[in-house]
Specification:
Blueprint: H1 2-25, H2 31-54, H3 59-77, H4 81-87, H5 89-101, H6 108-121, H7 123-147, H8 160-172, H9 178-181
Length: about 180
């Protein structure tokens, strides 16, 4: 079941990337941007499937995501140093959750994933992605509790797929939380 789901999700994601590239650049933008998005999408799909199955986010792919997102952000989006630092704040928040809980509340891989997602999305969109991911994960956890699939709130539910869902939602959807960030900018 996982193999066809990953294939369909990858094809659908690449189609959405292509549509966004056309809408944003009307074929006048560099196709390298589209290739950059495809590479980011491949890594995100892999990480979501791997975390859902094994409850771990491999460092090699998290580091690759962060490096590719950082380089693309600098090259294509001309991201400032200030924006790069702000983009890392959700990763720092997740790192602190991991640190203070001793790894019981969240894995360190989630913080690394948020770092790459922040470099890809930028400072405000990664906040949207994190909020969306937390809400989606909470709703899923409540569903599992109510349906009896898990017996306690101590059940391990991988956060990576929900954060990745948030990253993709923030990338494709208009700024949902933008009015709340004006107080910071």
């Amino acid at each position: 079941m996982q193999y066809p789901a990953v294939e369909v999700a990858t094809g659908a994601l690449y189609f959405l990337f292509f549509r966004k590239w056309i809408a944003d650049f009307s074929f006048s933008g560099s196709p390298l941007i589209l290739i950059w998005w495809f590479i980011i999408g491949f890594i995100l799909i892999f990480l979501a499937a791997y975390d859902a199955k094994h409850k771990i986010l491999p460092d090699k792919f998290n580091y690759a995501l962060a490096a590719i997102a950082l380089l693309g952000g600098i090259y294509f989006q001309k991201v400032s140093l200030q924006d790069l630092l702000l983009s890392a704040l959700p990763a720092l928040f997740l790192f602190l959750i991991w640190l203070f809980s001793g790894g019981r509340a969240m894995g360190l891989g989630d913080a690394k994933l948020a770092l790459g997602g922040g470099f890809f999305l930028g400072p405000f969109k990664i906040f949207e992605a994190a909020v969306f991911g937390f809400w989606a994960g909470a709703i899923y956890g409540i569903f599992l509790l109510l349906s009896g699939h898990v017996k306690t709130m101590k059940a391990e539910i991988p956060f990576g797929p929900f954060l990745i869902l948030g990253i993709l939602a923030a990338f494709f959807l208009p700024d949902i939380l933008a009015p709340y960030f004006y107080i910071f900018g």
